[in-house]
Write a structure and sequence with these properties.
about 240 residues; alpha/beta; Rossmann fold; N-terminal domain of TfIIb; seven-stranded mixed beta sheet; four-stranded antiparallel beta sheet; 11 strands
Length: about 240
């Protein structure tokens, strides 16, 4: 996607490792084992989980992200692959992973309802029995009902990242961003269409695909979902 190709050099400045994600993963599994990280970006989460003793495969659609991720590790674990999230069921073997993660609002880049179902079926296939699928998107029930048109500003010593939403009558959302690079005063502007997925839709699809014990959270700290939560975090067991 042109969106990520244009900002990949600054990806770690925009989205550094979130240690709360590590804690959430460990909270949801009983032992350190195999993991698949979908939409891995430049690999920070996968590398951190490998350091904790997990055997990790990690994929991202953007080859530039995978190149950056591979440059951070010498060889072996994690295993980074440039791949489409819709293909996980074909690329990886059945009953392979104890945990599959998909964080960072990756899911809503799928633009059709049947693609979301295809993806969830693939995740279900590659999970071991009793394995966990951990998903994080934004809470679009909250965003749409409260007409939230901007996300929190990301501002640090290297970049400033402005993120806005534009709603369309066909149900899509334009995700419009401006990335300001402070050392050279360059601005990179982008727009990409997202297809929001709502809580009830996700719960129904997860159940349809065979998942059980679907639990919803308002963040990686395990708080309850409410009308003010911006994140939506889901734990679903095979």
């Amino acid at each position: 996607m042109e969106f990520y190709q244009s900002i990949h050099t600054f990806y770690d400045d925009i989205f550094p490792l979130n240690t709360m994600q590590l804690s959430f993963i460990e909270m949801n599994i009983s032992q350190k084992s195999s993991m698949l990280d979908i939409g891995c970006g430049t690999g920070n989460l996968a590398i951190a989980m490998a350091a904790k003793g997990f055997v990790v495969d990690a994929i991202d659609l953007e080859n530039e992200m995978i190149v950056m991720a591979k440059a951070k590790v010498k060889q072996g674990n994690p295993n980074f692959i440039a791949a489409n999230m819709l293909d996980v069921g074909e690329i990886f073997g059945a009953d392979k992973y104890s945990v599959v993660t998909c964080f960072g609002n990756t899911l809503v880049h799928l633009t059709r309802y049947n693609e979301v179902e295809q993806f969830l079926k693939g995740v279900f296939k590659v999970l071991k029995e009793d394995g966990k699928f951990l998903l994080q998107i934004l809470n679009y029930d909250n965003i749409l009902s409260n007409s939230i048109t901007s996300l929190p500003l990301i501002d640090n010593e290297r970049i400033k990242f402005v993120r806005n939403y534009q709603f369309h009558k066909n149900g899509f959302i334009s995700f419009n961003t401006s990335l300001f690079i402070k050392n050279n005063k360059q601005t990179i502007e982008n727009s990409i269409l997202l297809k929001p997925v709502f809580v009830d839709e996700l719960k129904n699809l997860l159940t349809k695909c065979g998942f059980r014990s679907v639990e919803l959270y308002g963040g990686f700290n395990g708080e309850s979902v409410n009308t003010k939560n911006l994140p939506l975090v889901i734990s679903a067991q095979k």
